[in-house]
Amino acid sequence: MTATATSRLSHLADSPADLRTFLHGLPGVDKVGIEARAAALGTRSVKTTSKAQAIDLAIRMVDLTTLEGADTPGKVRALSAKALRPDPADPTCPPVAAVCVYPAMVPTAAAVLAGSGVHLASVATAFPSGQAPLEVKLADTRDAVAGGADEIDMVISRGAFLAGDYAKVFDEIVAVKEAAGPAHLKVILETGELATYDNVRRASWLAMLAGADFIKTSTGKVGVNATPPVTLLMLEAVRDFRERYGRQVGVKPAGGIRTTKDAIKYLVMINETCGDDWLSPDWFRFGASSLLNDLLMQRTKLTTGHYAGPDYFTLD
């Protein structure tokens, strides 16, 4: 990031009024236009040879996730083993990008993933509501990192954002980023609760200005999660942010992405919107659980000519 860009960001951080002016000065989102563009990109076809490469890339982009109250150490160990070898019968199948769990399960996952190159993500900051004092959120983050997490998926305070208290949201992201230390920070916007596309754009820029390494659509715990138009809008935001400030930020749609067809649509969207630079697990992730099994089924079909069937792979 250039010195001029850093100076601009510092100015916004120091002045709530300037931050509000900046966010409300972003161009309004054309609802019809963004939905039409997302729909049009979803109709693009992929050739068979390209499909095989796309499936392997999508597998490498999966954050294999379990975030249930009934999670047990045994379930987390099994999920972590699957992350390393998604298809035990096929050693050419790549590992996923990361395993994502609650903070209490981080040490369990870390014991399986240590030294593998598969990242360990932990939700934090009073996930999924974000309704807790800042001190609790920071302690949540520090505990997860101390347990072995190298990625933190935090939630913003939607109540503060919707009330127009952008400075509070900004300051919380900055504080969590500091508490996370070397861990990468994914900031969950919970776009299904933000009500408008304009708010999604503002929240995306707010998170990036505050230091997010990734912006993430959803917790997967509300009625509306990742959608193509919202993801397209966030991809446009990271593209424009890099053009303006020289820093690249990743995108993670989460919740509701279940099929290979869905995943490939998102890969096309990335390529057409941001280009090759974002076609990497370093810059794009799928927050998912059931998606991986469908990717594996389709991969087996391309390799062998027949489906293995949903029962062939472990249920997550």
From TrEMBL:
EC number(s) on file: 4.1.2.4
Catalytically driven reaction(s): 2-deoxy-D-ribose 5-phosphate = D-glyceraldehyde 3-phosphate + acetaldehyde
Gene that this polypeptide is encoded by: deoC
Protein family membership: Belongs to the DeoC/FbaB aldolase family. DeoC type 2 subfamily.
GO molecular function: deoxyribose-phosphate aldolase activity
UniProt keyword annotation of Lyase present: yes
Domain of life: Bacteria
Pathway per the UniProt entry: Carbohydrate degradation; 2-deoxy-D-ribose 1-phosphate degradation; D-glyceraldehyde 3-phosphate and acetaldehyde from 2-deoxy-alpha-D-ribose 1-phosphate: step 2/2
Protein known as: Deoxyribose-phosphate aldolase
Organism name: Paractinoplanes bogorensis
Pfam families membership: DeoC
Enzyme class: lyase
Stored CDD domains: DeoC (cd00959)
Family matches, as NCBIfam families: deoC
Keyword Acetylation applies: no
Sorted UniProt keywords: Lyase, Schiff base
